[in-house]
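Deliverable D2.4 — example input (structure tokens):
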């Protein structure tokens, strides 16, 4: 008995002093836990695998050969799902990605809880616009639509709500925000970015990080954000995902790195390295990028995860490693802390430490940060989630309302020849491959229960008091039949207006036929297949034609712009997209979105960006204009805003003095509307060339009919700075143009000169 009491006392002493005691400081808990871990257990924490259900699915449906040759599926030819479970039991797995549902999450955590040290698992998932890779969650518009709202608070709110839904599902770590700067319309991933501008991307990236993590991610409704993909993959040489990037240090620092610096300053706790190489060194083995710049210069304190199979690709694709083990070595040296995804890495890293090529202290360093995440997320205390709480939080009315608000504010009206808004009694004909399906969800979503989605056709039908006719012309862009094209013309003639819904599809369930999204680049930016024929047949009838675009990348719709009466860019407006679009069509909502990316006319114009250098359009094309189809920052409203009285509080400032800019904006129309007031600068003369304009601030305001407001911006002088010839960031004295207006187009901007002494 005495012995029993003694051992109980010892036990409780050990507990109260150990990493399992929540009252201990997190750094003490980490030190204690590390001291108890074997090398294998430590490296196990650096290993991530794809979820068991995903694996089982591949095991059921793929042949051995397919498993070996397809890197898009979750599969391990030499590791069966049952063996993976054993690894979890042995405490040799740190993380999973792409768990299917709450049941799978709880199942795996319960197994981890049986391991020697009971270290919980951290689950990562690409919840980039809601927890949309699982079924039944709120699916917000994709980032490119969110960026069109230019609304920091809204992006933060969506991230907070997504975090809640994720935690309710047992997920802890979202692989977003994607803060790549998208500078090539051919690239399939434009839709998952915030567009082309470093400042807009930084602002919305920061808003996401703050929303997901809410400072320290220490409660059970917060998740860790993962900023990605370090770096420059948004400008691939040929538009293809993974292609190499050769980019000067100046461009890297001025275009691609600022969003990372901003997100790191906002506390982002994880970073994903990019598939691509940077100036000859793959990002997964780039110590200069990860260790020197991100950690030492920018002060990043969190952990770095590899992207899908990219450590392996140092060997199989980039050929800078002569074996898979060498690839693992280069990635650890290159600053990567966690391997996504699969077997062999554990054995490699353990061997490399035993051989003395890697130091255990470097492993401790990587593992500490992963453990810190798990401690802060509270997973050691509670890793199991409850169904009741899940059902209360997920897809609640508040979240659905936010999804609707985001779609309303992100949809961009590109053209309106006095046709919109429509009267609700108008007879509307609706057709097009994207009119009545889930393409509105965009990439990184699985098909959702039908009842959760309002398609565009459904939205129009619900709001209209007139007759709505619909032609299902099929969802495949390539196979719209001539019969249906003809029929569409006939049906249009019997209506007052036609709404043709065309574009792209990024849906993952169409992995082999989708036209946009991850790994789906294009060599042109025209409408795919027979979509334009369909539009032409309808327009030819003389019935006013409204083209609604559902797409994840800019499309050069020049013919449509010339011949159709109205064009609405919805991007990928999410589960409530159809409702929001209908409200805009019928004037219940005044459109207010503005483009976060330039829309070129055709692929030959690429690279087409608004913040280009002065010489970019010095010469012209023989066969086309150098103007974009729609400029960055552009978007129409049902009202007109008038800008006047652009003023500087002081016209001459010293180079470290903040300055105030004000402008008067008036709603001259007779409907309430939101305007996005944009501020650009240009350094008039400088020691190295500078862009013709750069966005430096913006404000979204609401004005009632006839109302006017003075909009003020307080600009910090570092917004005038650039890297000089010696690559030192400085403000050079001289004249700057300050431009404020409704888009990046010169004609839309008021201008005033600022002198810096
Ligand atoms: C993508 C990442 C994503 C990862 C996990 C990769 O193919 O590049 O953005 O987070 O898969 O789904």
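Example output (designed residues):
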């Amino acid at each position: 008995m005495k012995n029993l009491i003694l051992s109980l006392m010892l036990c409780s002493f050990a507990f109260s002093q150990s990493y399992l005691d929540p009252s201990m400081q997190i750094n003490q808990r980490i030190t204690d836990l590390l001291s108890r871990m074997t090398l294998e257990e430590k490296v196990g924490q650096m290993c991530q695998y794809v979820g068991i259900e995903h694996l089982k699915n591949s095991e059921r449906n793929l042949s051995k050969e397919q498993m070996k040759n397809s890197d898009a599926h979750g599969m391990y030819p030499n590791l069966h799902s049952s063996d993976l479970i054993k690894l979890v039991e042995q405490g040799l797995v740190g993380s999973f990605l792409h768990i299917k549902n709450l049941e799978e999450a709880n199942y795996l955590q319960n197994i981890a809880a049986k391991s020697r040290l009971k270290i919980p698992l951290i689950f990562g998932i690409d919840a980039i616009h809601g927890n949309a890779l699982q079924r039944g969650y709120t699916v917000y518009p994709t980032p490119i639509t969110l960026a069109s709202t230019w609304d920091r608070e809204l992006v933060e709110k969506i991230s907070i709500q997504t975090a809640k839904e994720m935690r309710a599902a047992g997920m802890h770590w979202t692989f977003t925000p994607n803060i790549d700067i998208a500078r090539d319309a051919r690239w399939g991933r434009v839709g998952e970015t915030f567009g082309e501008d470093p400042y807009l991307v930084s602002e919305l990236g920061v808003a996401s990080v703050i929303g997901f993590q809410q400072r320290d991610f220490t409660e059970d409704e917060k998740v860790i954000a993962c900023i990605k993909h370090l770096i420059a993959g948004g400008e691939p040489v040929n538009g293809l995902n993974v292609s190499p990037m050769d980019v000067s240090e100046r461009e890297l620092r001025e275009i691609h790195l600022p969003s990372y610096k901003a997100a790191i300053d906002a506390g982002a706790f994880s970073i994903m390295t990019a598939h691509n190489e940077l100036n000859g060194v793959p990002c997964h083995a780039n110590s200069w990028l990860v260790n020197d710049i991100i950690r030492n210069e920018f002060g990043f304190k969190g952990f770095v995860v590899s992207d899908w199979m990219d450590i392996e690709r140092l060997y199989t694709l980039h050929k800078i490693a002569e074996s898979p083990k060498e690839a693992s070595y280069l990635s650890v040296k290159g600053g990567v802390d966690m391997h996504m995804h699969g077997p062999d890495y554990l054995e490699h890293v353990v061997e490399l430490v035993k051989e003395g090529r890697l130091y255990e202290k470097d492993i401790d360093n990587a593992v500490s940060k992963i453990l810190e995440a798990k401690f802060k997320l509270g997973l050691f205390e509670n890793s199991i989630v409850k169904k009741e709480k899940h059902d209360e939080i997920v897809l609640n009315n508040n979240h659905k309302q936010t999804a609707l608000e985001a779609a309303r504010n992100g949809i961009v009206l590109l053209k309106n020849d006095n046709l919109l808004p429509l009267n609700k009694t108008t007879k509307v004909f609706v057709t097009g491959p994207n009119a009545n399906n889930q393409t509105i969800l965009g990439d990184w979503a699985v098909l959702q229960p039908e009842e959760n989605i309002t398609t565009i056709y459904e939205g129009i039908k619900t709001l209209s008091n007139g007759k709505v006719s619909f032609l299902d012309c099929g969802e495949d862009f390539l196979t719209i039949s001539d019969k249906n094209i003809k029929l569409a013309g006939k049906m249009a003639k019997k209506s007052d207006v036609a709404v043709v819904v065309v574009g792209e599809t990024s849906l993952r369930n169409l992995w082999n036929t989708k036209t946009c999204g991850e790994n789906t680049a294009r060599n042109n930016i025209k409408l795919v297949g027979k979509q334009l024929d369909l539009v032409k047949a309808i327009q030819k009838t003389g019935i006013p034609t409204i083209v609604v675009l559902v797409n994840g990348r800019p499309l050069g719709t020049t013919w449509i712009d010339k011949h159709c009466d109205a064009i609405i860019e919805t991007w990928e407006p999410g589960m409530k997209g159809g409702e929001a679009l209908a409200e805009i069509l019928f004037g219940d909502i005044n459109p207010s979105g503005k483009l976060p990316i330039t829309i070129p006319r055709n692929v030959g114009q690429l690279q087409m960006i608004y913040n280009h250098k002065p010489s970019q359009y010095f010469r012209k094309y023989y066969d086309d204009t150098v103007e974009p189809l729609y400029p960055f920052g552009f978007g129409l409203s049902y009202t007109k805003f008038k800008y006047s009285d652009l003023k500087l509080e002081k016209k001459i400032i010293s180079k470290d003095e903040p300055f105030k800019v004000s402008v008067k904006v008036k709603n001259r129309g007779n409907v309430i509307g939101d305007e996005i007031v944009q501020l650009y600068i240009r350094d008039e003369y400088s020691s190295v060339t500078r862009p013709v304009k750069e966005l430096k601030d913006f404000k979204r305001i609401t004005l009632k009919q006839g109302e006017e407001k003075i909009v003020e911006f307080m600009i910090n002088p570092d917004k005038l700075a650039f890297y000089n010839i010696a690559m030192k960031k400085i403000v050079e004295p001289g004249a700057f143009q300050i431009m404020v207006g409704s888009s990046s187009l010169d004609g839309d901007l008021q201008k005033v000169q600022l002198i810096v002494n």
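The radius of gyration is 27 Å.
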